[in-house]
């Protein structure tokens, strides 16, 4: 078991609510120059959840589950920036008002631009929600450290999810991390250059069909753990040869140039001390029994 500073972590209760769907005021234009009008960010998205494919939807930047915000009028200000920065993948979110009061969900990550925290709830729960309902996130994880691996830095990762990722020590200083996909550095787009990764995401560009096919990028699902080659996320999102970052997929593929499935960073290292290994079940849904995995277990 990995030794961490879990007992020293600060826990917050963060208050938020579902954020209504957002739309652009006019046509969007894709990377082929074609205009489109499609569902996009935000909302209580009934038929999309963790474990579903991030490709093939009649949408753009679709966020699975419930898109949560503290203040829709001040997405980049307090208190919404605090909800963004302190919510971590794997945190529990509890509905505390309305018809769905008492129901629980799981944080997948956060999406920059929309400034939403993405929370997975079962469809039957989402159908009871309204946009004025209150959701409390039990936030713990920011500041997490791996005591025996100080060069590997966690961000946005709850201790509970870390324990379920099936990470394995290899030798004295390398961690073997299961992922569904290994993404080449050249595919990382929108979000590069951000000063830190404690909020927001960045996108896997999918405009080149040959690269998408070669690396199986079109097989990515919401909630997948993916490895980003040669990307150092310790002090922002930057290219560095030999670096490896691990992230969680939080929104769908996109048609706009420079965009694609969005990734919230959970682990990063400036050198090759993270060794990604392919595991088709390296997804939050499969690891925590939520989303599509919850639906499958109920059918058995």
UniProtKB/TrEMBL annotation:
Superkingdom assignment: Bacteria
Gene3D superfamilies to which the protein is assigned, alphabetical: 2.40.10.170, tm1086 (SG structure) domain (2.102.30.10), tm1086 domain (4.10.1180.10)
Limits of the DUF4438 domain: 27-163, 171-287
Pfam families linked: DUF4438, DUF4438_C
Chain coiled-coil ranges: none
Record's protein name: DUF4438 domain-containing protein
Organism lineage string: Bacteria, Pseudomonadati, Chlorobiota, Chlorobiia, Chlorobiales
């Amino acid at each position: 078991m990995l030794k961490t500073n879990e007992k020293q972590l600060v826990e917050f209760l963060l208050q938020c609510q579902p954020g209504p769907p957002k739309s652009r005021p006019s046509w969007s234009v894709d990377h082929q120059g074609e205009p489109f009008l499609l569902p996009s960010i935000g909302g209580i998205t009934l038929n999309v959840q963790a474990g579903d494919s991030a490709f093939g939807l009649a949408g753009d930047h679709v966020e699975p589950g419930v898109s949560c915000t503290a203040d829709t009028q001040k997405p980049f200000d307090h208190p919404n920036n605090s909800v963004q920065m302190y919510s971590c993948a794997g945190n529990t979110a509890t509905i505390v008002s309305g018809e769905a009061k008492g129901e629980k969900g799981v944080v997948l990550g956060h999406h920059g631009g929309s400034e939403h925290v993405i929370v997975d709830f079962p469809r039957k729960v989402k159908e009871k929600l309204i946009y004025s309902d209150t959701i409390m996130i039990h936030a713990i994880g920011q500041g997490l450290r791996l005591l025996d691996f100080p060069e590997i830095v966690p961000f946005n990762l709850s201790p509970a999810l870390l324990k379920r990722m099936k990470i394995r020590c290899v030798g004295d200083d390398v961690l073997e991390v299961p992922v569904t996909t290994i993404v080449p550095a050249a595919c990382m787009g929108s979000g590069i250059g951000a000063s830190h990764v404690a909020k927001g995401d960045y996108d896997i560009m999918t405009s080149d069909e040959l690269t998408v096919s070669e690396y199986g990028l079109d097989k990515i699902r919401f909630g997948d753990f993916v490895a980003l080659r040669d990307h150092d996320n310790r002090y922002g999102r930057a290219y560095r040869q030999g670096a490896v970052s691990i992230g969680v997929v939080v929104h769908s593929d996109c048609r706009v140039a420079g965009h694609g499935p969005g990734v919230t960073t959970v682990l990063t290292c400036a050198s090759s001390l993270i060794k990604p290994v392919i595991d088709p079940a390296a997804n939050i849904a499969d690891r925590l029994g939520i989303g599509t995995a919850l639906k499958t277990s109920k059918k058995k």
